Amino acid sequence: MRLDIVTIFPEYLEPLNVSLVGKARARGQLDVRIHDLREWTHDKHHTVDDTPYGGGPGMVMKPEPWGEALDEILASGDGRPVMVVPTPSGAPFTQQLAVELSEAPWLVFTPARYEGIDRRVIEEYGDRLDVREVSIGDYVLAGGEAPVLVMVEAIARLLPGVLGNAASHQDDSFAPGAMADLLEGPVYTKPPEWRGRTIPEVLLSGHHGKIARWRRDEAFRRTDRNRPDLIERADPAAFDKKDREILAALGWAPGTDGRFGRTSEAVEE
Ligand code: ADE
């Protein structure tokens, strides 16, 4: 996969040399090209921003450097990349979107500073490319570089051969599949006792069926506690008899449409 990132802070993207993404680059699985937007300015001060039309606070990124940068990058490759524009006004970045973007051969990220990029840039490339305006959460950062780090890591770990154990993203929280709609439960490793704290007995039993059931019950407990909205939204067809028992114990019951809602405080803690 090829990734181009256009930024006024190339050094902000240094973490892409480290760990999983760094190794994927070193192995040639990821071709990451970081570009300094100021290289496409022509004035002495390398100006990339200007005051907003209509007034208001802050500055807006000028269209000309972006246009020249993007034209040159587009001309340097075959086919059309998906253009990812990080913005707090974008659609939510989800695991589903990470999976979709991981299937594209080429992504171009355009992290902005200030109040964002002149709208005409998004329109211009929207006519030619699949442009996605994406937010990583309901908070406002000072720029799109940290969101690019987040998105690239989420996407890169899905690429074939990048994670050591291909099975390890199949039961990620939010991954499509049997554990969809549930958060992952707790994990343990050796030693078997640490500061007087032991491991849940079932994990030492070697009984795969019981372990799977215990993990699923723990996933329900954690989802109930941290993300009840996921249970409310879940398709109840995904819940088996044991799921319904743990949900009932946690204070959930199906409504008239079959979807689960909270009825009372939990019976068990
Ligand atoms: N730029 C500033 N805040 C952002 C956010 N939450 N998501 C994506 N890009 C951003």
Automatic annotation (TrEMBL):
Q: Which residues bind S-adenosyl-L-methionine?
A: 136-141
Which keywords label this protein? Cytoplasm, Methyltransferase, S-adenosyl-L-methionine, Transferase, tRNA processing
Molecular function GO terms recorded = tRNA (guanine(37)-N1)-methyltransferase activity
What does the UniProt entry say about where the protein is found?
Answer: Cytoplasm
Q: Quick one: a GO biological-process term for this protein?
A: tRNA N1-guanine methylation
Q: Which Gene3D superfamilies does the entry link to?
A: 3.40.1280.10, tRNA(m1g37)methyltransferase, domain 2
**Catalysed reaction equations from the record:** guanosine(37) in tRNA + S-adenosyl-L-methionine = N(1)-methylguanosine(37) in tRNA + S-adenosyl-L-homocysteine + H(+)
InterPro entries (UniProt xref): Alpha/beta_knot_MTases, tRNA_m1G_MeTrfase_C_sf, tRNA_m1G_MeTrfase_TrmD, tRNA_m1G_MTases_N, tRNA_MeTrfase_TRMD/TRM10
**Biological role:** Specifically methylates guanosine-37 in various tRNAs.
For this entry, the protein name equals tRNA (guanine-N(1)-)-methyltransferase
